[in-house]
Amino acid sequence: MQNDLSLSGDKIVLTGTHVTTSVKKQIEQLGGQAIHLPLITVNEVKSDMDRQRLEKSKQYDWLIFTSQNAVLAFISKIQRFHFQASEWTCKVAAVGTKTAEALEKIGFEINFMPSTFSADVFVQEFPTIAGDNVSCQFIKGSMAKDTIVKGLSCHVNEWTVYETVQTTEHTTELLTLLKESTNVSIAFASPSAVEVFSKHVAKVIGWHSFKVLAIGHITERALIKAGAKVDIMPHTYTMKALIQELANRKEHLK
User: Fold this and answer.
1) What are the tens digits of pLDDT across the range 173-184?
2) 163: phi then psi, degrees, rounded to nearest 5
């Protein structure tokens, strides 16, 4: 049976914008310390055309969301203009459980979710075939890759609802932590966070004094390209799965 304190003495640095209470609690219950030092921030992209774009989005056959941040920005627009989820009769596709949960929370039904939470698998499994007269709107962030647009056979319209901004606000704190502490693991959930860390932290201290944790194969690729050895990348692309796999690994080594 797994020791409840598998992460005893470990410091887990979370570099994403949002860290849920449940993830912090999970780390603490396993004996670890959760440290939130974001390397990116996320801002909603607002426009005078947002109301019209919301109206137009109802006309598509599918709405596609590949991140929780896109959902949150979309919901912000819906609430600002006092729309209701019931006004959309189109189908909804979501990548990731958190993405789906955020949509379901305000009343959207999820009609499709890929077996693996990645855009690559999404385009392989999405239920349309070439020649279908299907229209899709991809509701996305500023750093989204073109995998969805190029990979689907149907027409895809893009709507950028949030922007990802890199921040160096916490890089000095990260450097100090890594120089003064042992048993540190750093979790990355986006190539943008990897880029900031690589330029402002790894350039000074390297990649070898801590465990490197990655969510998703795109982030894993970015880490490898930057010179890191990825210690853990869970099959399920969620922070909870990442933390659980780290705990399992630590328990196995005891």
Assistant:
1) 999 999 999 999
2) -120, 145
Long-range contacts of residues 143-147, Cβ cutoff 8 Å, at least 24 apart? 143/190, 143/191, 143/192, 144/66, 144/67, 145/119, 145/218, 147/119, 147/120, 147/122, 147/123
Give the model's pLDDT for residue 2. Answer: 46
Spatial distance between the Cα atoms of 215 and 150, rounded to a whole number of angstroms: 23
What is the C-alpha to C-alpha distance for residues 169 and 175, in angstroms, rounded to an integer? Answer: 12
Query: How many helices (H) and strands (E) in the chain?
Result: 11, 9
Considering the entire predicted model, what is its pTM? 0.82
| Residues ≥6 apart with Cβ < 8 Å to 22 | 240
Tens of pLDDT, residue by residue over 60-87, are 999 999 989 999 999 999 999 999 999 9
